[in-house]
Amino acid sequence: MVDMDSKYREQTFNVSIGMHQQEASKSFDDDGRPKRTGTVWTASAHIITAVIGSGVLSLAWAIAQLGWIAGPAVMLLFSVITYYTSILLSDCYRTGDPLTGKRNYTYMDAIHSNFGGSGFKVKMCGLVQYVNLFGVAVGYTIAASISMMAIERSNCFHKSGGKNPCHMNSNMYMISFGIVEIIFSQIPDFDQLWWLSILAAVMSFTYSTIGLGLGIGKVIGNRRVGGSLTGITVGTVTQTDKVWRTMQALGDIAFAYSYSFILIEIQDTVKSPPSESKTMRKATFISVAVTTIFYMFCGCFGYAAFGDSSPGNLLTGFGFYNPYWLLDIANAAIVIHLVGSYQVYCQPLFAFVEKHVARIFPDSAFVQKEIEIPLPGFHAYKLNLFRLVWRTIFVIVSTVISMLLPFFNDIGGLLGAFGFWPLTVYFPVEMYIIQKRIPRWSSKWICLQILSISCLLMTIGAAVGSIAGILIDLQAYKPFKTNY
């Protein structure tokens, strides 16, 4: 009887353990971290939020520099390159087996796993990635402030019947955007941003559609298609300016497609099985296809509407004045989108710093302790004092720099140039070669190297053009006193 009881208790105990293990497997992933819940659609939302940013608004200007032949061709080329290299990069999320291999949680982790140690390539990648993420924060602050001013200016133009030039300073708007970002930056990590990404993606479609509709309407009203086969002509601008502008246009298009440096972080939100790389292939195809269609329509119809005089920012450069209420909706959508996009780009940088500091100060209550704050109807919010202080300082610094350098097109072009080749092309190509053990001098190896070198040359040209644009802008610039 005793034996029967003991066997029954043992069986019950084993069943209990089995149930606990099953529950644990439902709550945690293969590495012991909380279970990921991301899908093709949430990953696509993150990518679209990151890609269809303020860069879409400068595409009409970019096509105006390149013309009807080169403009759409270059845009299509960048979309193909971005898609292909994103696929290469997504294959490097796990080291070894694509389903059970060691997970790389960040772009830097993938670099470290494939190149090993803390060598020059790892440090260079980290520098380029995180400087670029900081630069995006600056660029988006500038873009958001311009859209906020555009709302006030369109209303001002409407009230005065176009008689008032409606000049205003951008500082107040940048500070307002910074305050909002301080609040949203306290969202602890990437996985909890899904709702903000979906909202931002909806907003990006909203203002892109409005810009497209206004462009189509203006083309119909003009009863002609503006622009030329080769873009803005020498005579309208000097030959030197034509060269600089063409190069800067490459940077603007590259900036419009930039998202590779947060792809691994987005991939780390996707549940498995199936393998994360399979999910990301689908998400990348959906996102890049949707983005390219929107970019083609917005850029081409914007150029068709305004020709060589296409503004640097389609909705805020005052190519359009009416209907003013529709412009207000479009610019409000831009601001809401940029609030979300800022967070999508900055979360990897936040996580890197916080992880590094936690490793240095493992016993610090200021760094490690989380204070639970109850929220009615929601889960308790976990406040971390270091996160609060450091992220607030980050937003303040990026806002101050935005106030110092409020040149949207030039900054966008420089960021696109600075990040495109190393993060979108070079590192994904090199990691893929290592991961798949592609023999040196094989036909595939040679093709990948040709792709990398060609993109490097484009990047150098774009960087030179954007720096030239910034230097020209600085000649008539006063810190903190730029008016629009």
What would the keywords be for this entry?
484 residues, mainly alpha, Hydantoin permease, two-stranded antiparallel sheet, two-stranded antiparallel ribbon, 15 helices, 2% strand, globular
Structure description:
The chain is an all-alpha fold. It contains 15 helices and 4 strands. The chain has helices at residues 2-27, 40-51, 59-90, 107-115, 120-160, 171-184, 194-222, 239-256, 263-267, 276-306, 324-360, 365-368, 385-404, 408-435, 443-474; strands spanning 94-95, 102-103, 370-373, 381-384. The strands form 2 sheets. A two-stranded antiparallel sheet has the order 1-2. A two-stranded antiparallel sheet has the order 3-4. Strand 1 and strand 2 (102-103) form a beta hairpin. Helix 6 (171-184) crosses helix 11 and helix 6 runs antiparallel to helix 13 (385-404). The N and C termini lie far apart (91 Å). One of its GO terms (cellular component) is plasma membrane. It is found in: Cell membrane; Endomembrane system.
